[in-house]
Amino acid sequence: MYREYTVSVETDLTRGIGKEFMEKTQYKYLEPSDQNKGMPQPPLELPQDPEKAIIDLPKPSGIRVEYDLRKAVEGRRSVRSYSNKPLTMEELSWLLWCTQGVKEEIGRPATLRTVPSAGARHAFETFLLANRVEGLRPGLYRFLAVEHKLQEVDMDRDIADRVTEGAYRQAMVKRAAATFIWIAVKYRMYWRYGERGYRYLHLDAGHVCQNLYLAAEAIGCGACAIGAFYDEEINGALHLDGEEQFVIYMAPVGKK
């Protein structure tokens, strides 16, 4: 009887948290944002680590992909099994550009990218677990979107195992040619929207991942969105504090 009562209380509590989130992020409850208070806006992207290697990527303008949009939309589906064929650097560059590519910097300052974002805040950093990419050493990288380059983050031999463990032990994370991991930099969105910004972070994640699905389909690849992960473990594997910066979405990609 005690166990049954405990489960019931936990279920009610969980339901209540979701309802409270939707309620308390309504406009009528919001306080003035830091932007309205005149606070300086955060940088457009996280600073580079001067001690970590930077890798050039093929320029997006030089990558030619011709594929019918209707065919991509109709063919898009979640793919969890992949061949052993690696991604090329050109294909990786294409996928990164389609999901977070910077088309233009404007004077606010802000970036206009290949995906929509609330207020052009673009609060994500793309981390990449590279398993099989031609010309790229296996390891964890960060996409430097403004410069369209990669920077090494963690090249330890067990990084793929640690990320897979954090990703609810889903083996496709390690079997894929690469796994995209989107990191929310909370204050970049919170600065403008306050508590309601948490809603926009999750909406923006959907925009990004759908672009990955369509871009992957266009080059003979498949992707699978992952929302199931152990938050503390995956954030720890990526050296994130889990509050100001945290994993919000993931997706392995590989050749069909």
Describe what this molecule looks like in 3D.
It is a single chain. With 256 residues, the chain is α+β, with helices and mostly antiparallel strands. It has a single domain (31-255), classed as NADH Oxidase. Helix content is 36%, strand content 21%. It is built from eight helices and nine strands. The chain has helices at 2-24, 69-75, 89-100, 159-166, 172-175, 186-193, 197-218, 231-237, and strands spanning 54-56, 102-106, 110-113, 124-130, 139-144, 149-154, 178-185, 221-223, 245-255. The strands form two sheets. It has a seven-stranded antiparallel sheet with strand order 1-6-5-4-7-9-8, sandwiched between helices. A two-stranded antiparallel sheet has the order 2-3. A hairpin with an 8-residue loop joins strand 4 (124-130) and strand 5 (139-144). Helix 2 packs across helix 7 (197-218) and helix 6 crosses helix 7. The chain is globular, with a radius of gyration of 19 Å. The N and C termini lie far apart (50 Å). Mean pLDDT is 94; it is low at 1-9.
Task: List its traits.
single chain, 256 residues, alpha+beta, NADH Oxidase, seven-stranded antiparallel sheet, two-stranded antiparallel sheet, 8 helices, 9 strands, 36% helix, disordered N terminus
Q: What's the layout of helices and strands?
A:
Layout: H1 2-24, E1 54-56, H2 69-75, H3 89-100, E2 102-106, E3 110-113, E4 124-130, E5 139-144, E6 149-154, H4 159-166, H5 172-175, E7 178-185, H6 186-193, H7 197-218, E8 221-223, H8 231-237, E9 245-255
Antiparallel strand pairs: 1-6, 2-3, 4-5, 4-7, 5-6, 7-9, 8-9
